[in-house]
Amino acid sequence: MKKGCFISFVVLLFLLIAAGIYVYKFHKEEFLNFGKKTLFSMIKSELEDEFENVRYSPQKDSLKILTFNFLEKLKNDNFEKRKTEIEELSKLIKETLEDKEITPDELSKIRKLIRNYEANEKNRN
Question: 20 to 30 A Cα–Cα from 51, which one of 19, 40, 99, 117?
Answer without folding.
Answer: 117
